[in-house]
Amino acid sequence: MITTLNVYDNLRTPKISNTTTIEQWFELIKQSAYSPLIESARPFGKKHPVYEANKTLIPAITYNFTFHTNKENANITGATGLLYIDVDDTTYDITLLDTSKVFAYYKSFGGLGYSVLVKVDGLSLDNYNSTYAAVLADLGLSKFYDKGAKKATQFNVLSYDPNIYINYDSFVFTAIETDSKLDIKNSPPSLIIKEKKTYIDRVGGIINSNTPLRFNNLNEIEFEGNYTFNWDGWAYVNAWLPYKKIQSGKRNPTLLSFLNNYVWLNPQLTQKGAITVLNWINQTKCEEPLNQSEIEGIVKSIFNYKAEGTLKPKYNWKTRKILFANQTGLSREQKLAICRELLAEKNQNNSLQKLNGIIAGWDFDKYGKIGQAVIYKNFRISKKTVEKYWSEFKDEVKQLNDNWKNPPVSSKKDAPVLRIAEDNTQPDTADRELLITNPERYRRGTQLLSFMERVELEARLAYLLNTGYTGEVQLEADDTLFVFNLQQDVKFVGFGESVAA
């Protein structure tokens, strides 16, 4: 049994950052520096901004398999000897679990569900679904587990449960091979590509497992809810074919590129299955089909690369920035509306950030007093944009212009950061709050952040205060550096609340 597990910085990062043993991980579940942050998230519940922000600050592991560099099916290096089940149905009575067959169970991150671990011998990617279904049936969990958390590559974020149950002498399940008669209707495939279903039907029965065939690896991006977005974009691999007929001069490179990624995405595909797929594409997509020997030559070359371990994916030159979950129930029009809203918010934030950067770095010696006209006449920003968002900066501009005309005696030039005042005394109040040296700039700085970035910054600051951290700390959010001087007797005030000037 491999006791080493891969560790990741957080749920958003599939790159392996470290390794740990199961024993060490269990100790962290009992108590860790992250425990206060986990406890503070639980009252809010799933989908609440504070809950989601806190969750992204916590390290995670993968229980089922170990991986090379990044967690994805193609990078699996071996089974850990464990199988992870997420029991998210709050109606389930955990005391009904046959603990003689359970290696460990503990409260999940949210505190309402449970993470259940069992020992399994012989687990592989090919028999994963059938084994998973068999274990569910044996433990009576088929109706209570989270179907969205059954992937072989499933993340598991660090939780907090000082009463974790551990049984090192638990029963060891044996993996169920895919030709079993087991009914796995309660173990749905992790990915269904409806628009490519034609290919799946035509190659049925000639792959080495019952794992669904994939045409991209977007299902490896994990998130909760109906959609997620990443304006930096996710690089992904897809088996791509043009909509138009493939011209004679482009047949070989197009089919070679398609099959390269298709085989990489579907390691269970047999050489016979690949020939069948390529023959169908050749006959239906090529203006003039290649002869059979050329098709077999393409397949042979790809499978030679696979056998040598040199088969590498070709990433799509475009990245995906908005991603919807499978079976959301959203119509095409609703998805487009969400995309428009997200893009509008992004464009607004970009405009605000640009205008804020111009104002924050204003050269009074060169341009004089800050004003709308002098901004759009001297900087690459439109008059319409300046006028549209000017009200957001009006108070700050007035403060900057007044200070320029009437500079305070012995004042120091503002640092290019936002700073908490070192003197946190506040008369006539029972609780002491965080004071801001430049309240208007601080307000602008936090408002320029997206809501999630602001909540995440707040969660990080709250965590540091909860752990007793004192002294200066720098926290970066987006392109803004916030500098805080933390004291143990300071009460944290949320960024969304008013702060004393």
From TrEMBL:
This is Uncharacterized protein. It comes from Mucilaginibacter psychrotolerans.
